[in-house]
């Protein structure tokens, strides 16, 4: 249990790799402890699900448009046939202000494609303050590896 007490090894591996694939026990708890340790050393953290992410780079870092769900109502000619586009702020927009390091923690990362994971890794390499943890599934014990190694396998 010393790993969960300090989180030092996790932090060092995350800073070295930039993006980690995490396999956590299904009963939970370990990820919130690690996130709390990262916040304690100065990281600004964002926890979100990978489901419904769409284009990860646009969703996380750019002003982008979304369409509301179709609820079966008739259009009265106010918008396009597929609905009106609403502009949405990037999810990491507020975290990018300042100089503190940023931690993006993605739950259910197993739904992301190889290309989406590769895009996230390349963005972590371009933006050195951004660190990424992607939960890739369950395991008997808490373990992690660089996300690049997972993609190469």
List the helices and strands and how they pair.
Layout (H helix, E strand, L loop, with lengths): L1 H5 L1 H10 L1 E6 L5 H11 L3 E6 L6 H6 L2 E3 L19 E3 L13 E6 L6 H13 L3 E9 L4 E4 H6 L1
Parallel strand pairs: 1-6, 2-5, 5-6
Antiparallel strand pairs: 1-7, 3-4
Question: How would you portray this structure in words?
Answer:
33% of the residues lie in helices and 24% in strands. By secondary structure, it is α/β, with parallel strands linked by helices. The protein has a single domain (2-51, 92-152), classed as 3-Layer(aba) Sandwich (Rossmann fold). The strands form 2 sheets. It has a 5-stranded mixed beta sheet. A two-stranded antiparallel ribbon has the order 3-4. Helix 5 (114-126) links the parallel strand 5 (102-107) and strand 6 (130-138). The longest helix is centred in the last third of the chain and has 13 residues, at 114-126.
The secondary-structure class comes to alpha/beta
* Spatial arrangement of strands, main beta sheet: 2-5-6-1-7
How far apart are the first and last residues' alpha carbons, in Å?
Answer: 29 Å
Helicity level, as a percent range?
A: 25-40%
GO molecular function: oxidoreductase activity, acting on NAD(P)H, quinone or similar compound as acceptor; quinone binding
InterPro entries: NAD(P)H-quinone_OxRdtase_su_N
Organism: Cyanobium usitatum str. Tous
Protein name: NAD(P)H-quinone oxidoreductase subunit N
């Amino acid at each position: 249990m010393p790993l969960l007490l300090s989180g030092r090894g996790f932090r060092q591996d995350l800073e070295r790799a930039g993006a980690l694939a995490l396999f956590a026990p299904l009963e939970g708890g370990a990820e919130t402890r690690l996130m709390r340790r990262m916040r304690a050393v100065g990281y600004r953290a964002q926890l979100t699900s990978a489901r419904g992410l769409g284009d990860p780079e646009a969703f996380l870092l750019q002003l982008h448009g979304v369409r509301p769900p179709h609820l079966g109502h008739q259009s009265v000619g106010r918008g396009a046939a597929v609905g009106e586009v609403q502009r949405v702020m990037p999810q990491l927009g507020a975290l990018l202000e300042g100089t503190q390091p940023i931690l993006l923690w993605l739950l259910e990362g197993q739904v992301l494609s190889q290309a989406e994971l590769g895009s996230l890794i390349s963005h972590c390499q371009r933006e050195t303050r951004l660190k990424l943890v992607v939960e890739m599934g369950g395991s008997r014990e808490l373990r992690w590896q660089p996300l690049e190694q997972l993609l190469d396998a």
